[in-house]
Write a structure and sequence with these properties.
This protein has 179 residues and is mostly helical. Helix content is 56%, strand content 11%. Strand 1 and strand 2 form a beta hairpin. Helix 5 packs parallel to helix 6. The chain starts with a helix and ends in a 6-residue tail after the last helix. 30% of the residues are buried.
Amino acid sequence: MNWNNLEQKISNAVKDAYLDIVKNLSQEKIYAFAIYTDADCYTVLPTANTQKKHEEKISREAVTTPSEKAGYKWYIGEWAYEAWRGELFDDICDELSSAAEVACLTDTHSAFKKSAHQCLLNSLLKLRNEGLFSNAESDFVVFISSSDYDEAISLENWSAKILNSQSIYEKFERRYKTS
């Protein structure tokens, strides 16, 4: 697998998806943007949420407790803009899927998964360093996640620590703590 080539493809797709979401949601405050994969790293897709959509959802669902509100705010499965411009990632997902299958057959999936997560991180880090997220709100956070709940929190914390300022990371790391 050519990780450098895949990293560039992911960066290009993320950039296009992010710029499109910012353009289309200019009237809403985007508080988070992430790219996520699955437990086997077959896919990668972008997702985002806005304060407006978060508030609408917790109102619609009659969520009242701080812990439930935090869950709705930070669990990517609850976000309004999941898989935004997902078609930009079709070829990437095909490539990852094929490579993941080979990794499973050759008993190298653990190393593959670690490399895939690093590739996702590097893609976002490159875009951050290029200034892609510089016009975001001061409390905006960017990270990597997984649709697999068992690994999501550690992957999110690991990536958020690298991709965001220390103060943003510290707030993010406490996102589920309600007391």
